[in-house]
Amino acid sequence: MLIEERHEQIIQLMLQKQSVTVAELSTHFSVSPVTIRSDLNLLAEKGKVVRTHGGARLGDERTRQENSINVRQRIKAAEKQWIGRLAASLVQPGESILLDASTTAIAVGQALKRRTDLYNITVVTTGIWTALEMLGCTHLEVVLTGGRVRSSTGSIAGLVANDVLSRFYFDKAFLGAWGISGSGGLMDSPLIEVEIKQTVISRCIEVIAVVDGSKFGRTSLATIVPLSDVSRIVTDEGAPPQLINAFRRQGVEILVAKEN
Prior knowledge:
15 strands; about 25% strand; seven-stranded parallel beta sheet
């Protein structure tokens, strides 16, 4: 494993546990305590963690937010870019669309930013990081919903966000998820995220799931929407062929993104 990969995995573990010890990381990665101490010292120098006696912890709230989005964006990063390009190609001039706070939706926003052929496009988003990716883009009108900000993801949810979204109507909604299965449909957690996505779905014509291949067959706490109500799935070549075929037999259009 490369040092950079180990550092990313250390941060990912800390996002789940808040703090770690040298001993447990040494066991987890099968490397010496000396190596782990060096890793933690380097991460501390970069401001990613705060060293403690025998281990490390995450820093302030802003550091935790930045770590979370950075780690999530690096997981299947290339595949998300392919998915983003293909999904963005589905948008037509004059449409109003919704992008959620998922890192795959961020990739869609990045691709839309490069589509200078578009005009009269309104992009509503429930993600702070998603909105920031499109900042300064003159051919897109970007609307960030109000509401409660979830510090762990930069997503906006809650009563105010639901009220704001209920006033819009979308041609297309691009939604990420924790998993997608034949029986559970598009699934996610926590419930506050599921609720906001369900509000979006009730106000749009096309529901387009943007999920990388690792999400196929995976389940979570709650169903966002049944598979039968998903208009399209945009994924990558890592999606299991047997599940792609099974979903297509259920009438779902699946688009497979490839490296250009």
